[in-house]
Write a structure and sequence with these properties.
Layout (H helix, E strand, L loop, with lengths): L5 E2 L6 E3 L13 H8 L10 H8 L6 H4 L11 E2 L40 H5 L6 H4 L15
Antiparallel strand pairs: 1-2, 2-3
Length: about 150
């Protein structure tokens, strides 16, 4: 048990976690999921291992925390841990797709990726014609479905 974790009353193996450094495994109740999704997390570029401690009000970045209210998710952790990383930072073979990443600021954003409200222009390179959208899925265009 870490020093910033409090044992859940009447439990031998559950603690209220402090800041979580890795989101390796988690389970959600319907109520917890509703609380998390009600904050529209996809509208903010934030990894889940930052978002969860924000939502149980244990994150140290007050600027990020202010974007999400209320922060009333109840988080519990197993003690001892049930899932642990195979390698830790600095160990031979440790790989992370996020650890060495930088924070994206508005000044660093590519202007073509900033949402302007006019999604038609942004989506034009991915658009399909009406004839393409009316095709049946998984059918080769030169075959008649009745031949299959």
């Amino acid at each position: 048990m870490q020093t910033d974790e409090e044992l859940v009353p009447n439990s031998r193996h559950l603690v209220y976690p402090g800041y979580t450094y890795w989101t390796l495994s988690y389970a959600l109740t319907r109520e917890g999921m509703t609380k998390l999704l009600s904050q529209d997390p996809l509208s903010h570029m934030l990894p889940v291992d930052e978002y969860l401690p924000i939502m149980f009000d244990s994150h140290d970045n007050s600027k990020w925390k202010m974007k999400f209210t209320p922060r009333n998710v109840i988080a519990l952790s197993a003690n001892p841990l049930m899932v642990e990383p195979l390698k830790y930072i600095g160990e031979v073979g440790y790989v992370s797709d996020t650890e060495d990443s930088t924070t994206i600021t508005e000044a660093k954003q590519d202007p073509s990726t900033v949402e302007t409200g006019d999604t038609k222009a942004q989506d034009s390179k991915f658009s399909t014609s009406d004839s393409e959208t009316n095709k049946q899925p998984n059918v080769h265009p030169t075959h008649d479905p009745s031949d299959l």
